[in-house]
Amino acid sequence: MRIGKVPLTGSHIKIAQEILKSQKEILTGTMLSIDPGSTSPGWALWMSGNLVTSGVIKTKSTHKIAERLATIHEFIEGLPQADFLAIEKIGMIRGGGKAQAHRYLFWSLGAITAATRTKKIAEIPQNMWFKFRGREYSKGDEADAILIGRTALEVAKSQSYSSS
Description:
Layout lengths: L1 E2 L2 E2 L3 H10 L2 H6 L1 E6 L6 E6 L2 E7 L8 H13 L6 E6 L9 H18 L4 E5 H4 L11 H17 L7
Parallel strand pairs: 3-6, 6-7
Antiparallel strand pairs: 1-2, 3-4, 4-5
Helix pairs in contact: 3-4
C-alpha cells in the first residue's frame, strides 16, 4: 500500500485500514491529534481536513502527576468535541529508570482519551507518522502532533470519499 510517495507495509497497512474506517470524520468533521506526554503534550485541531490551531499543553513538571493529568484533561475538554482522535501509539518498556515516566505517559493517554469523549481513535506509531514528515519538519511536541494528524489525513484522502 502506498499513500502518496510513502510506502506502508505490515502493521502500518492495518493501521491505515483502521483510519479509513473513520474517513468521513477525518475529512468532514473535527479531528484532534495528540503527541502525548505527562508534562507538555502537543496537540493539533483539524476541521474538515484543515489544521485550525495547535500548541502544547503546559504543565509544571514540579507538580504531582495528578495535578498535571487534571490540567491536561481540562485543556482537552475545553477544545471542540472531536469526532476522531489520532494519537501516537506508545510501545511497552520493561523496568529501568524510565519505567515511572513511561507509566505516567500511559496515564496521560488515559486522561486525553477520556477528555475527548470520542469512540473513533487511531493509535499511530512514530515509525509510521515519521514517514510523512517534510523538509519543514522540526522536532517538537506541537510539530509531532501536527504530523500525527497529517498522517491520518493523508491516509483518509488516499481513497475517494463520497459524502452521499
